[in-house]
């Protein structure tokens, strides 16, 4: 009986690790208005249900980084932050602060490698979600973040986290500031590597520089339709719209989503206002929406479908955070300016809700 229990536990652990390391399909994108104001957003996909809440963390809230050997870096929120937390924690996995700086953690399986915590680095050590939270509460611009990392103010250490399984969840990060500048931060071989991100686009593995090189395979893509051609005096016409984008990858792997996200961001026609830009963000991200069951893993007869659980859009110009969920496609908005940044308590709201169908039958009128 004891041997059977151990075998069952090991099998459960193996399945858990398999799901947590293979099912992920988050996509991030940025667009700008006619006047150059940036807005951006992302999707959150996973093969198991991730409990999420919307929170607002005020200034002067104290945090202590978590490590495998005890307390890590102690820090206090310099800026108020609104965003998404997971599994009931107070650590924002994706959000925006009062200065318009945004940061999101994206899954980075098989490549993320954190430093090992030691007594020597423990005082500046953070877990992978503490790191995201630290950036949002401490900085106002991309340049400040880059300088802090250059000066080795912190180190991300290998730390299991509540809800994310028995091992440290593998993340890499995208940061935007109000001006539209963007960087990518990746933990590679225990070192934090920083890349400038000219597109504001982000997905998952492999590393960011690989994705940038892979774009060279798609330099032929264009939003303009291909002209008709003559072959042996026979005129060949295109079947319809979209011929300039023939060959764009359509699957949901990270490399394919990265190429598509760049294509959407590059061809989007700038709008007058950031509100219209937010509408564009949602329309773009709709193209990365994964229905429940379309992408899946089956382990020992149990199916684990990867699906779009949450979609977020951020407007750093107006300090508004927008979101919708798989179960409720109505877009909700959180206005940071309506909150007291010096409040004592963290404010929280579950993202779970059900979308009602609106019956408009009674609104029809006779045609005149």
Concise synopsis of the structure shown:
With 368 residues, this protein is of the alpha+beta class. It is 20% helix and 31% strand.
Word description of this protein:
The chain is an alpha+beta fold. The protein has one domain: Penicillin V Acylase, Chain A (4-Layer Sandwich), CATH 3.60.60. The chain is 20% helix and 31% strand. It has 6 helices and 20 strands. The protein has helices at 2-22, 128-138, 142-150, 208-214, 254-267, 274-286; strands at 28-32, 38-46, 52-57, 62-67, 70-76, 81-86, 92-97, 102-107, 125-126, 155-156, 171-176, 182-188, 191-196, 229-231, 234-236, 295-299, 302-315, 320-325, 332-335, 347-350. It has an 8-stranded antiparallel sheet. Strands 1, 2, 16, 17, 18 and 19 form a 6-stranded antiparallel sheet that branches. A two-stranded antiparallel ribbon has the order 4-5. Strand 17 (302-315) and strand 18 (320-325) form a beta hairpin. The chain is globular.
Keywords, separated by commas or semicolons:
single chain; alpha+beta; eight-stranded antiparallel sheet; six-stranded antiparallel sheet
